Each structure stands twice: as C-alpha cells, then as structure tokens.
Amino acid sequence: MDVILHTQHQQAKQLNLGGKAAGLFHLESLHAKVPPFFVISSEAFRQHLPEREWGEFLLEQAHLNPETPNQPLPKAQALCEAIRKKTIQASLREEIEQAFQIVPATHYAIRSSMIGEDSIEHSFAGQLESFLFQSDLEAVIQSIQNCWCSAFQNRVLLYRKRAGLIPEDIRVAVVVQKMVKSEVSGVLFTVDPQSGHRSHIWVSAAWGQGEGVVSGACNCDEFIWHKREGELHHTVADKDIMFVSDPKSHTGTREEETPPEKRHIRSLPTEHLHKLCTRAAQLETSFAYPLDIEWALEGEEIFFLQARPITALPEAPNEDGPVVVWDNSNIQESYCGVTTPLTFSYAQRAYHTVYRQTMEALSIPQETIDESHRWLKNLLGIIRGRIYYNINNWYRGLSYFPSFGKNKADMEEMMGLKDPVDFIEDQQLDLVQKIAKLPRMAITLGRLLWAFRQLRHTVPAFQDRFETICSALSLEKIRTMHFSQLMELNEQLRLDVQEKWHVPIINDFYVMMSTGGLRRFLTQNGLSNALQLQNHLLAGEPGIESTEPTKILVGLADTLRLDDAFMKEIPDLDDEAFYKRLQNHSPETQKILSHYIQRYGDRVMGELKLETETLRENPNFLVQILRNYLQN
After folding, report:
1. CA distances (Å), origin 516, targets 454, 510, 512, 519, 529
2. What is the structure's pLDDT at 515?
3. Between β-strands 130-134 and 108-114, what pairing exists: parallel, antiparallel or unpaired?
4. Quick one: which of 212, 249, 336, 412 is 20 to 30 A from 608 by CA?
C-alpha cells in the first residue's frame, strides 16, 4: 500500500510515515477538524530512488563536513535531478488517481513528511518543501517528486549530519491535503515558548495563508491565553502584507498589501480565539506533550493543519508556589560572574551567622531567632552559577524593626534594586496586634539606638581587633600547612572573626537608615534631584578606606611619570617584565608596592570569591592599572 487515506488510522500505525503525517493521523483520530488528506508512503519514495545516483550520493555523504554550510554537493544535486526526471510507477499513479476521488478538492497542499521530522528529538523546522494550491494530477505528482528532492538540499543534509543521522536512513513520506483558503491563519504553542508558562497558550495570527506566518514574512498579532482564565493579553501588529493564493507561482501563494481597513485591527476575534485555544488545550492533553500547531480559519471553521511536539522550552516557572524575588544588583560587585559551589556555601554560612548575631545583639528573643533559622539560612541563593539575594527573606528580617515601610525603601536603595518589589507591603495590624507587638518593638528599637550611639567606640575596637588577628597570620606559614592544620585555622578564624561580625552589620543599618533619612529630608524640602545631591554631599567624606588603594596608585604613577628613562623603557615590556622593573625602580617604589600588596592585595575583581586569584598570587591586575594611569 503506497497511498494511505486520512481515515485509515489503523493501517497508518503499521507504517513509518514521518512526524507530519503521524501528527495528522493522530489529530484525525481525536476528531479534530483536519482537512481531508492522503499520504504517499516512504516506501514509495525508496522505490523511486535511482540506484546509481543513490549509491554515488551515499559515497559523497561519507565526506560531508557538517561545519561547512556552502560546500558543493554535486552528487546530491544529480540525485535530485534524476528523481524529478524519473517517471513514477504506474501502480502509484493509479493509487493517487483513486485517492483524488475519495479526497476531492479544487486545490491541494503537498507537504513533505520525512522520517524523524517533527519528532521530539529533531524538528527539521522549515527545512523541507511545501507546495500549495496545486490543482491537477500532474501538478500534484510533480510536487510529490519535488518534496522527495527537498530531503537532499544542503541545509537538510547538514542538519542530519550534525544530529548524527545517517544518510542511508533518509525516507520521505508526502502529505497531500485539501487546501484551506484561509481568511486568517497562524501558529499556536500550547506552552508559552518565551516564558515557559505551562498554563499559557501563545498564538500568532495574520490575514491570509499561513506561509507568511511560518516564514516570518508577515507581521502578526500575538495573543496570550490562560488555560483556566481565558485571554490574558494581546498585541495588534501593523499587518502591512499578507499571503494569498496564486496557483501559477512555484509555491502557490503570493504576497500582496493588506487592505487598509484590516491593517490595524485584530485578526482573530475573541470567540474564535477561545474556540481555538480550548480545542488546542484538549489536544495537548490527548497527545500528552506540548504542541506546536499550525491552524487556519475559513469562514467559521477552524482547521488544524499540523501538530508536532515542541522540542525546546525554557524551564517552567513556579506558577503555583509563592512568588520569590531574586536580585543581584548589589551583590554581583563582590560575587561577579559564575561562582563556585564552595564560595557560595561559605557566603551562605557567613550571611546566616552574622545576621543571627545581629538579632542576638539587639535582644530579639531566642525563640524568634530559632524560628528565623530557615530564612536566615537562605538570605542568598545560587541560580545558574550566580549568587542572588532572596529579597523575600531580607524583608522578613526587616519586619522585626519598627517603620518597615521606610526601612524597606532604604534597603532597596542600598541594594540597588531598580524595580522595587511592590507586592510586599508594610504590615497592616489592628490595634490589639499593635499593642501586643509594642513591647518587643520598643526593646528592639532601644537596643538599636543604643548600638548606633556606641558605634563611635565599637567600630574602632572592632577594627583594632581585626588588625591584630590579621597581623598574626603568616602567609608563608599558611602555604606550608597540612590540610588538618588549615581546617583548624579556618575554624579558629570563624570563631574569632565571623562569629563576632555584628558591629559592621549594625553600622550598615545605621548608614542605610541615615542616608535614607537624608534623602527623604532633601525630597520633602522640594529638591527634585535629591538622590544626586545626597551623593555629592557624601562623596567628600574624609578617611574612606576604599579610596586609599586608588590614591596610592595614582600617587605612584605621578612619581614614575617624572622618570623619563623609565617611561621610554616600559612600552616594550610585557606585564611580568614591567612588574620586575617596578620592583627594581627604587627603594621607595619597592616599599610602596610591598605596602600596597600587604594592605590591599586581596582587593581585586570578585574579591570575595575563594577561586579568585589575588595580587599576592598574580600582580597582573595591579600592573594593568598602573599602565593605564601612566598612559593618562
């Protein structure tokens, strides 16, 4: 049997007819509205192949380079010509004539259905040929042969090679389908291909035949339809062109201007969208996988022309659970780019530890701290290798302090959030709840204000203690330690430093709330550029440690620039030679470099990442900065 009719579902199951034909038979079996069709089996294709040209083609394919897109393939071209010139078998011609009687139509669409095409593994999207509005028997037979030939085009052969498919397995069935003369047509995805939402259906529609939509030549209206709630959103495009029937052309369609009255109106009315998406959702359930569907609207009838699996989708968002907001506007400065799991685990523990200490320092009840363990442990998250703040959990921490709304705005400003999270609002408590909460809030506020007042003493004491601990460390000794000694040192530093880190956090709160108060004061006094003015007022603050590395290097560059012999020598030196020349320049230069690396040797890009090379290990970053200063 070389020709299989659209009603012959059981017979079709016994044959391998390619993804496109299989999808149509499946649609037909589910009683979807499918234009009548018949299929020329892949066995008819193999019987039609000229033996000599086929053998030469296989030899040529053995040397095909999948990375060379425009390489000449003369044997594939010769095979195509032979396929077109060879007369089809009389028995096949007779079966096609009989199928014409069962599937009568004014015009037919002829589409290739290669084995492996439109499958879950391989899509071959848009690579094989289709021929529309073919009317008589001879035109249909010629289109069938052209569909067979399309399997031997360069782009198809390269796609197969890259996918690891062998040329001996090339088999092409052909779908001959009653042509739908559509007023509107388009494509539909039963899952949103952009957001990954499994509950959304994404529809693209344009006037006329679907070739303009599939090829991307037409501007299309777009619709988002929720499987439970209905239409969510639509965008009406300027549909300046449309594709209409033209049986005289090679493909059977031609491009023409859209009538002015149709250009800016919605191409798919609400009732048709509802009918289309409701049926598509049912079909997705029956197929048991997300579908890419081509459809057409003729009169009041919606026809399903193709249905194939969607082969690639973004990860599905969490549509049922709580909304969690992640942001790395601020933290990416310290943990830039992809971060190793080792660094993340260390950072996660550090944040947990220091904020637990801060809660203890502010006399928050131990029971409350214990209950906060889950969110304290998850102040950070790692997503595709990058570290983010879990904004929800930071807001939970702020809820223990008075004036949540002001603190929320100040924290968002400090973190650099470009889009503040509006769904988290200040707690709305009734009078009884406020009275019950008042004692704890009063204690926390009192402890916080007292801690702020003590910063003038606690910050210098913290700095002195930190300097004492750091000065006692010997880098040379650390490099010779065994693993057990390193782990012991790491644990000791955790107890001496990380477990006593609440003073910097309280200082951060003080800075956050103070700068927030200043910004509000400037705004309330009618200054439209309050944020810019605030930055200018704070920028001149003396004694900021983070500016010292720049000052040292700028000063060193100014001194070196006075040495003409040195300036003439350095352009020809590579980075390693330049650094050695710097060290030998003068005792004063050597002293400045030694002090800089001793004091600021860990201040590099990604300085908090354990995997980052510091200036102590590789001074190239320092060399590059100095070169830039010297050249400018």
Report:
1. 20, 10, 6, 5, 14
2. 84
3. antiparallel
4. 412
| Backbone φ, ψ for residue 447 (5° rounding) | -65, -35
DSSP-derived 3-state class of residue 426:
coil
Give pairs for 413-418: CB < 8 Å, separation 24+. Answer: 413/512, 413/515, 413/516, 413/519, 414/330, 414/508, 414/511, 414/512, 414/515, 415/327, 415/329, 415/330, 415/331, 415/389, 416/329, 416/330, 417/327, 417/329, 417/391, 418/329
Are 519 and 538 in contact by the 8 Å Cβ rule? The answer is no
Which residues, at least 6 apart from 512, have a Cβ–Cβ distance to it below 8 Å?
Answer: 407, 410, 411, 413, 414
What is the C-alpha separation between 416 and 515, in angstroms, rounded?
Answer: 14
| pLDDT exceeds cutoff 80 at 402 | no
- How is residue 97 written in tokens? 């004539």
**Residue 426 pLDDT > 50, yes or no?**
no
Residue with tokens 């490099």: 479
What are 16's strand-pairing partners?
none
Q: How many angstroms from the chain centroid is the CA of residue 360?
A: 40
Tokens in use for 49?
A: 């192949």
Higher pLDDT, 281 or 167: 281
Per-residue pLDDT, 538:
75
Q: What is the pLDDT of residue 545?
A: 79
What kind and span of H or E run contains 380? strand 380-383
Return the minimum-mean-pLDDT range out of 82-86, 225-229, 571-575: 571-575
Spatial separation of the C-alpha atoms in residues 14 and 169, rounded to whole Å: 18
At residue 58, does pLDDT exceed 80?
yes
In b/e form, how buried is each residue of 481-498, taking b as 16+ CB within 10 angstroms? eeeeeeeeeeeeeeeeee
Give backbone dihedrals phi and psi of 337, rounded to 5 degrees, phi first. 65, -160
As given in the structure block, the two tokens for residue 205 are 């529609």
Return d(Cα 368, Cα 370) in angstroms, integer. 5
Q: In the numeric block, which tokens belong to residue 46?
A: 């193999």
Query: pLDDT category, 317, cuts 50, 70, 90?
Result: confident
Alpha-carbon distance of 528 to 184, in angstroms, equals 52
